[in-house]
Hints:
By secondary structure, chain A is mainly alpha-helical.
Amino acid sequence: MGEDTVKGKGTGRGRYHHGDLRGALLDAAEALVRERGVDGWSLREASARVGVSPSAAYHHFSSRDALVGALSLRVLGQLGERMGRAADLPAEADPHRRLVAVGQAYVRAALEDPAVTRLAFGAGASPAGRGSGVEPLAPHPHRVLDAELDLLALSGHLTPAARTGADFVVWTAVHGLAALLADGLIAVDGPEAADRQTERTVRATLTGLHHEATPSEPWPTPHSAHTTRAADGPHP
Amino acid sequence: MGEDTVKGKGTGRGRYHHGDLRGALLDAAEALVRERGVDGWSLREASARVGVSPSAAYHHFSSRDALVGALSLRVLGQLGERMGRAADLPAEADPHRRLVAVGQAYVRAALEDPAVTRLAFGAGASPAGRGSGVEPLAPHPHRVLDAELDLLALSGHLTPAARTGADFVVWTAVHGLAALLADGLIAVDGPEAADRQTERTVRATLTGLHHEATPSEPWPTPHSAHTTRAADGPHP
DNA sequence: TGTACATCAGTGAACGCGCGTTCACTGATGTAC
DNA sequence: TGTACATCAGTGAACGCGCGTTCACTGATGTAC
Lengths: 236, 236
């Protein structure tokens, strides 16, 4: 078995053997999650979208749950990769810059693709995907944040006492913002505003609201779904 | 119509007219959410549990979605109340104590009742429950945190610049911890450990990890689901 | 290069199921006189 | 206090539906000789 005669993956349109049905099903499922939410679609719909009979999926996934689990892991891996790439920054004066950038990648993903991101962290997400021939997992989002904190500790910008468990504090903060945005509990005017909010949140966990540098312009204030409710315009 | 001849609410067992079917359906639905997750149950099951035919529910809710929406609002209100009660503390030296206690109430709720709490904040939760004869809403969890920050600002423990938007930073942090615990992404050894983690998180947003007081004992470290995975024992 | 054959990855019909919702109905309640 | 009647809150049968999954099958692929 030569390495590059893998099986003609790619454009399998119209052929009896699809070529990469597994990947195509994951793609279709991801699109459906995006359009209808984590649970608003069926195995049959995903199969139909790929142009394949419903039973074909069972050659690649043992059940619908297994498909969802595998997708969840794939999304989680992509998020980890994206965060890793965001950290790849030229050396700067500001030691916190990399950590902020990593957090921003996390939050941006939640903002761009709420339902899909929610899937990655959905209740008990990880166990479901186990043992389903999963691709070698990219670093977990938590691990990427953790690595940045290691860097800060190594360069003396975080004391050992503060370093202990700091990953959970920072993860909590970043995840909280991502979750609130993904669930529409707060809204923000575009990705740049999200970035600024992420920056303030991450810096607050490190430096504290009490000690934050005075911003050149005032911090933007997100909108909260519940307070604006009473002030809403007429309902359509 | 006298005020207290409302209609014999309470033990309606065995009678043709239930007395408070609306409330009973909400109770049953809440229990089902607790047992099976936000979407793992049907209107028919909730009706059966109350001992009533499936169609009876339609005299009280226009659809299953309306039932879920109303439940979501009820849970949100109860959480707001619980947080408000937690703030009711004797005056203390530590100005941040009340805010910490409010955050702890939020996180504890998520820990005790993950699925139900998730429902309260679930994707687009608020709009679904609109216009369904909803009880006068208790203060929203965000509002309760907001009020505590007002108190801190008033007593001079938070500068006006830091106060602006601080509610979103603190909500983000508390919500993040609640969400990670509710979804099982991190685990913690019991409610006291959750309280300590909440305290560290809330204090970090105010004071910063850099400036935190040295704890008498080291901060406890939660367990993360993804890092322990590799170190798991044999699978059952 | 050609043929036989095992294996793989599809098909399509069928299964039993429980779902949300509608409908015409009926029993219980409470008010008017 | 008694009766007529409107209203309210239940019943239970029925609807059409799409679901996940199984099964016996078949077409395509790739390897052995």
